[in-house]
Amino acid sequence: MKPNNVFDFEKPIIELETQLEEMKRIAEDTSTEMGPATSELEKTIENLKKNIYSNLNRWQRVQISRHPDRPYSLDYIAHITDDFIELFGDRNFKDDKAMIGGMATIDGQPVMIIGQQKGRTTKERQYRNFGMPNPEGYRKALRLMKMAEKFGMPVICLIDTPGAYPGLEAEERGQGEAIARNLMEMAVLQTPIICIVIGEGASGGALGIGVGDRVYMLENTWYSVIAPESCSSILWRSWDQKEQAAEALKLTAEDNLRLKIIDGIIKEPLGGAHKNPETAFENVKAQILQDLKKLSALKVEKLIEQRIHKFTSLGQSDESGAIKSSPKKTIARVSEEV
Amino acid sequence: MPWFKREKDNIQTRTEDKNETPDGLWIKCPNCKKALQSKALKKSQYVCGYCDHHLRIGSEEYFEILFDNNEFTELDADMISGDPLEFVDTKPYPKRIASSVSKTGLNDAARTGVGKVEGLDMVVACMDFRFIGGSMGSVVGEKIARAVEHARAHKMPLLVISKSGGARMMEGALSLMQMAKISARVAQLGKEGLPYISLLTDPTTGGVTASFAMLGDLNIAEPEALIGFAGPRVIKETIGQDLPEGFQRSEFLQEHGFLDYIVHRKDLKSKVVLSFRMLMNQIVAKEE
Question: B189, B152 in Cβ contact below 8 A?
Answer without folding.
Answer: yes
